[in-house]
Amino acid sequence: xxxxxxxxxxxxxxxxxxxxxxxxxxxxxxxxxxxxxxxxxxxxxxxxxxxxxxxxxxxxxxxxxxxxxxxxxxxxxxxxxxxxxxxxxxxxxxxxxxxxxxxxxxxxxxxxxxxxxxxxxxxxxxxxxxxxxxxxxxxxxxxxxxxxxxxxxxxxxxxxxxxxxxxxxxxxxxxxxxxxxxxxxx
Length: 186
Ligand SMILES: [Zn+2]
Fold this sequence. Notes:
- α2 (25-36) runs parallel beside α5.
- 33% of the residues are buried.
- This protein has helices at 9-18, 25-36, 43-46, 64-76, 85-104, 142-175.
- It is mostly helical and 186 residues long.
- Bound molecules: zinc ion.
């Protein structure tokens, strides 16, 4: 897995890039939580469920179906997030799916069950630059530092670039004649 420090960052970066008019703060926060949600499946180990089981780690909770179901639930609470049900559903689905995409970019463990329940196959991306994180009991070690350095390079820095670039573009648009800051997404 990728660490829970890094999982919310792509969602935060995209939300900051798009601006609070498009992605209200409550929806942004819900998306960051949704990006961590799939790793609750580590509780399966406590129940004796094997890693490779459909309900084990990186199983059904990392599937596209689970991401879609999270979006449907979020649509029901759309007004809580201060936006339309459709926007809530799309954002939360995307945020949840971002989790398994990051996991699929790691270089260890089993892949993610994107197509569950239609296929039990576990998938990785063809390019996997992110060091896989050990579980919490092995994290506070030299290996944990190596993982954080890898995530800083391949997740934190690209997220920072995305957020700053988006913010810069919105600032530029806001300064154009006839454009108010509100129209630019602030
Ligand atoms: Zn995961």
